[in-house]
Amino acid sequence: QVQVVESGGGLVQPGGSLRLSCAASGSIFGINSMGWYRRAPGRQRALVAVVGSDGKTTYSDSVKGRFTISRDNAKSTVYLQMNSLKPEDTAVYYCNAFLRTLGTPMLPVAYWGQGTQVTVSS
Hints:
By secondary structure, the chain is mostly beta strands. The chain has strands at about 5, 10, 20-25, 30-40, 45-50, 55-60, 65-70, 75-80, 90-100, 110, 115-120. The chain is built from no helices and eleven strands. The strands form two sheets. Strands 2, 4, 5, 6, 9, 10 and 11 form a seven-stranded mixed β-sheet that branches. The protein has a four-stranded antiparallel β-sheet with strand order 1-3-8-7, with no helix packed on it. A hairpin with a 7-residue loop joins strand 9 and strand 10 (about 110). The chain is elongated and about 45 Å long. The termini are far apart. The mean pLDDT is about 95.
């Protein structure tokens, strides 16, 4: 059974930093992409950053220059380094992974983590 689990959220003051981690586990044949989404209070879930199978990274305009996504394929893990945090970054952050697995070895399927809370407040 495939699972993705996030960690690293917490409470931080404006201007501070946090590093989120997301690890995928199970019978994984390949990773097409891994990334991060977030849902702020009263808003829909939105893309934050993603890294594709070719290593290309994509960021939301609201986090460019402040957040950095990286991955470790050997560990099936993706990270999100968040610097210069703002109150508007407060949200539940979700890890998303498109994976080829034992169940669907030829087609990638999306898997979601449970989310980790990030709160930016003075």
